[in-house]
Amino acid sequence: MANKIVRIILILVIFFIFFEVGLFSSYTIVTAEPPNIQGLIDMQISKVSDIFSPKNVNDALIKDPTSINISNKKDVALKMEGLSQVDGVNVDSMNITTFDDPNSGNNITVTIEALGYTSPNSTSGQIIISQDPSYKVIAKGTAKNKENGLMVDENSIVINSILKLY
What we know:
The chain has about 170 residues and is an alpha+beta fold. The protein folds into two domains: about 1-60; about 65-165. The protein contains four helices and nine strands; from the N terminus they run αααβαββββββββ.
């Protein structure tokens, strides 16, 4: 058993040595200069440590979005209504979430989901008024903490998708 472990470690060391020799020789061929060995090793270490940094590991892990409340829901609904070209957006069904820290003083990226309505259709002389939503509108925007709570910048709102509900 110990013999197999030594073989595996020896293979990994040989692989690492050949990799480094190949890196140094290719650097010499490409730049026509002798390689800065310490600089190349430092660059490799920094790149590998960046991959395993806590920030990158946290970004790779799937986490649930945080629901937030904003103080300008009606303005956001009007902007979404205009951008998505639906006849109305339900403020009560609006769901605003973020993966960022809402308590930070920085701008945070938010996802806004709301139900959209179309105008009543007339069919054979009758007007049919339905309370059922016709669309689900999904948008992204940026929000910032203001004196009266979190507010979404209306000029930053971009419609991601408009889904037709059946």
